[in-house]
C-alpha cells in the first residue's frame, strides 16, 4: 500500500548554491496526493510546485522544478531520493526559500528523520511504472537508458580526469532498504577548479568541504576525514539518479543505466519515456512486487553508522 509520514519533520540548513538559510517541513499527505513543494515565502501567486518530471527546469548543477507562475524550488534531488528510498509516496513539503537545504551533502539526514518519525500505510495500492521497451538518450559522451526488468535496478559509470576519482562503476538492486544501506550517506562532490568557477559565478555559495561536500583536486581529497566509501562519487551519482527518477511520480520497474549521466540527461530520459506510450504502463503492485520496492521493510538501523 502507499505510505506517508506519521508526523511533520522539519529541517533547518543552508542552500548549497544560494548560501541562504532554509527551513523546510515535510508533512503527511493523503493517498494519491504525490509529492508537492509549497513555497511559504511566496505571496500573491501560486506557491505550489509539483515534484514531477514535466516541471523540471533544465540545469546542469542540480534539479530545479518550476510551476506555471514561475515559482521554483531547486536542489530537490537528495530529499526526493530519501522519499523514494524510504517508500514515502505522498508528502507536502513546505519551504521558505528557493532551495532545499543541503544538510551534509547526502540523503542521510532526511532518511534518518523520516524513519524516526515513522510511516503510516494508506488505503490505496502502490502504482508503479513498468518499462516495456528500451529507451535511451545520448548527449556527447554521456548516455542514460531504461530497459525492462523485473524490479528497479541501477547501474552507473563515471569517468573523471582527477586521479582521486578516476573511473568507477557500480550496480545495485534498489529493493528492501538497499538505498538506505548502500547509497543514502554518499555526499555530493566536485573538483576544486569547478568550485572556484561556480563561486565566481555566484553558485555553490553554501558549499563547505568540511560540512557538506567532498572536494577533489587531482590525486588529493581536500575534505577532512576523506571518503565514506572508496567509491563514494559513483554512489552519490546513483543517489542523484534515484531522486531524479522519482520525479516520474511513482516507482519505476526497470533497469536504469547511466554513463557519465547527470540531472539534465536523466530528466531527458524520463521525457523520452513518457513521450512513447508503448514504452511504459502503470501497474498496481501486488504484495510480492510491493515487497521488493526501494523502501519496503526499511528501518533506521540500516543507515550506515558513518552517517
Automatic annotation (TrEMBL):
Q: According to the UniProt entry, where is the signal peptide?
A: none
NCBIfam families in the cross-refs:
lpxC
Its taxonomic path starts at: Bacteria, Pseudomonadati, Pseudomonadota, Alphaproteobacteria, Rhodobacterales
GO CC terms:
membrane
Any GO MF annotation of the entry: metal ion binding
Database matches in InterPro entries: Ribosomal_Su5_D2-typ_SF, UDP-acyl_GlcNac_deAcase, UDP-acyl_GlcNac_deAcase_C, UDP-acyl_N-AcGlcN_deAcase_N
Q: Which residues form the active site?
A: 263 (proton donor)
Keyword Ligase attributed:
no
- Cofactor dependency: Zn(2+)
- Which amino acid positions bind Zn(2+), per UniProt? 78, 236, 240
The similarity annotation says: Belongs to the LpxC family.
Q: Quote the protein name from its UniProt record.
A: UDP-3-O-acyl-N-acetylglucosamine deacetylase
Supply the EC number(s).
Answer: 3.5.1.108
Describe its function.
Catalyzes the hydrolysis of UDP-3-O-myristoyl-N-acetylglucosamine to form UDP-3-O-myristoylglucosamine and acetate, the committed step in lipid A biosynthesis.
**Pathway annotation from the record:** Glycolipid biosynthesis; lipid IV(A) biosynthesis; lipid IV(A) from (3R)-3-hydroxytetradecanoyl-[acyl-carrier-protein] and UDP-N-acetyl-alpha-D-glucosamine: step 2/6
Q: Which organism is it from?
A: Shimia isoporae
The catalysed reaction is:
a UDP-3-O-[(3R)-3-hydroxyacyl]-N-acetyl-alpha-D-glucosamine + H2O = a UDP-3-O-[(3R)-3-hydroxyacyl]-alpha-D-glucosamine + acetate
UniProt keyword terms in alphabetical order: Hydrolase, Lipid A biosynthesis, Lipid biosynthesis, Lipid metabolism, Metal-binding, Zinc
| GO biological process, alphabetically ordered | lipid A biosynthetic process
